[in-house]
Amino acid sequence: MPELPEVEVVRRGLAQWACGRTVAEVQVLHPRAIRRHLAGPEDFAAQLAGRRLGVARRRGKYLWLPLETEGPTPPDRAVLAHLGMSGQLLVQPYEAPDEKHLRIRIRFADTAGTELRFVDQRTFGGLSLHDTVPGDPEGLPDVIAHIARDPLDPAFDDEAFHAALRRRRTTLKRALLDQSLISGVGNIYADEALWRSRLHYDRPTATLTRPRSAELLTHIREVMNEALAVGGTSFDSLYVNVNGESGYFDRSLDAYGREDEPCRRCGTAMRRRPWMNRSSYFCPRCQRPPRPRAA
Fold first, then answer.
1. Which DSSP category does 96 fall into?
2. Which DSSP symbol is given to 224?
3. Which one of 58, 82, 103, 282 is CB 3.0 to 4.6 Å from 11, fit for a cystine?
4. Is 168 assigned to a binding site?
5. pLDDT in the model for residue 242
């Protein structure tokens, strides 16, 4: 799944090439791509036609385009995009050949000669229209109002995050992937931040001191900003920006995907362990597992 840096790369591309444009026509080429819009393809297309797209926004792994209203009134509707495992939002010239897995085409009422395409090989992602949280100036879709702010959001509350960690009866990596606690962190960047912090993924959150949770947040922000600087992490060319360009942070990964390779810090062979239908990568020397609790 794409994580915060990959989704932010797409958001920045949309902000440059799609925002402020008025929709002329929408073609839904595969109904599964708008399955979360329960009224169906025709209603989705009709509600978007004639509406102007506002500034692209993101919270965690979700991004949305508010539909602008007249005057200072906050947006009342928004197009929510979830990329799933292979979704791409591409800005393409009209004459560009259709991608094999093109699902939705959005054309604009201007002379720029480009359109917005949603391409999704595995059809786990999609677009949908939603009401926004009343009075929210960013037009936050109500269906993701429960998603926590992400660590790159200026409004993220570090102290509240630490207090929540101490209250939870869970382990570190489970907490980092809990989108109601901190959003945008997925399997890749959790492993990377934990490696940098020398913390084991199974360490109980209640044992984390305030300085250690602050250090963990620092490393989460560092690794995400470094990934953003090179366009995110792209595997098999799935996660790309709106121009179709891949990121290359995968060349800089210190933990994820490095089983049996030497730890870049101490030289010990990195290990991989099955974890919640995923894998966790860690250094057995730098990231000591927690001691078993006494019976």
1. S
2. H
3. 58
4. yes
5. 58
101 labelled as ligand-binding?
A: yes
Q: Give the model's pLDDT for residue 6.
A: 84
In this structure, the chain runs to a length of 295
What is the C-alpha to C-alpha distance for residues 262 and 284, in angstroms, rounded to an integer? Answer: 11
Q: Among all chains, which residue has been given the structure tokens 């209203």?
A: 69
Strand partners, 274: 279
200 is in an annotated binding site: no
Q: What is the pLDDT of residue 3?
A: 82
Alpha-carbon distances, residue 295 vs 38, 127, 292 (angstroms): 51, 50, 9
For residue 177, the model assigns a pLDDT of 95
Give yes or no for a contact between 199 and 17, defined as CB atoms under 8 angstroms apart.
Answer: no
Distance (Å, whole) CA 203 – CA 163: 16
Amino acid letter at 262? P
Say what the pTM is: 0.89
- Is 6 strand, coil or helix? helix
Task: At 288, list the tokens.
Answer: 């000591």
Alpha-carbon distance of 215 to 184, in angstroms, equals 18
Average pLDDT over residues 226-234: 74
| Mean pLDDT of all residues in 105-111 | 97
Catalytic site residues?
2-3, 61, 278
